[in-house]
Amino acid sequence: MQQMEDKTDLITPDPEGPQANPLWTRDFTIITLGSVVSMLGGQLAGFAMSLLVLDYTGSAFYFALYNIVYFVPYVVMPLIAGPYLDRFSRKRVIYTLDYITAALYGAFALVMHFGLLNFGLLALGTFILGVIGSVYQVAYQSFYPLLITPGNYQKAYSVASTLETLTMVMVPFSALIYNTMGMVPLLLINVVTYTIAATFERQIRHEEQYIAKRAEESAREARAGLQRFVSDFKEGMAYLASEKGLMAVAVYFLFSFLANGAGQSVTLPYFKGAFENGEYIYMLVWGGGSAARALGGIYHYRHRLPVEKKYDIALIVYISISLLGAFYLYLPIPAMMLCCVFNGLLGVTSYNIRISATQRYVPDEKKGRFNGAFNTLSMIGQLVGQFIAGVLSLHIPLRAIVTIFELICLAAAFIFVARNRESISKVYNTQD
User: Fold this and answer.
1) Quick one: which of 146, 141, 151 has its CA closest to 23?
2) Are β-strands 12-13 and 303-304 bridged in parallel, bridged antiparallel, or unpaired?
3) The pTM is what?
4) What is the structure's pLDDT at 316?
5) Are the CB atoms for 83 and 232 separated by under 8 Å?
């Protein structure tokens, strides 16, 4: 299940009142609007693509393979993208990739309109989208914090998580349009949304000063080619290894993504197989979690977590998420929804603590390499989880697979987070 929290008694109001540095600057507003537009289109097409694959293959195993094809680039591409993005314009990469994505969805629409779709083309297109998405993720994660004014990290990431969750409202429309009109209209909507997002992002004026800092070095290293990029990635991994707290968090999230990958591969197939119109039951159950994440994000925007409690809150969140995720599929539908509500609250807190703390802690000139290394470890977990869950789906019940992986994630929380309190607290227990 996705990550969330409760424990609101541990959260205190922001005592500082209005910030001296406003969050909603011109550039922050533009990046927010652009990301919302692209996420709306992405949610519309993404869920429908999952339904298309399930209808086309009728197998949880092949559904897992589809997910693996998409996420393989998330392991490979950050090896190159992270070092590159520490030397060149992340903004240019972001809007260029959005334009390319719009063109790719347009090509998809033409293929489907003329009835030329087959599993090979579906896999190829999915792989290309994975390549684009993996590079975009590193670029966005490394560029976004540069647009946040001092003292506003928690608020900014609360905005991001809330808006991302609110775009989940498009999922029911995705299923409805797919079941009544097919895939082509959804793909055409994505052409429009990604083009709009890219046009927004081109208007950002922020000067990426880290480029100037390394301009002379970059000119020299550009001639070194791929060898230098590989060396840079090793440098990023060495930096991660030198920071015990960051490394412990990264390893825990490898296992968190392991469980997430397994759940992603079997949960939707479970609902479609266990219930009539199971995709709508799936949306109903997870809708409560999405609403809770949105409300939690709004709450975190208005309130600060007490600095000295952030690590403790995070550990409680990690343990609770795994326990809820391990057993919720065995409950009646209303109880499933309630579990997802709690998980929604937990997840937005987990995200807010981890992303704001690590992006604040890591120096600007190392953010690309850190995010590349972190994303690579996470996606290794995701892929391994998807593959093993796909194989297990041929032999054991789907609900049991989710339980096994969530209990593994629970063990990881105790081994890597609980046993590294001091080093992780240095990262988490900090103020904007």
Assistant:
1) 151
2) antiparallel
3) 0.73
4) 95
5) yes
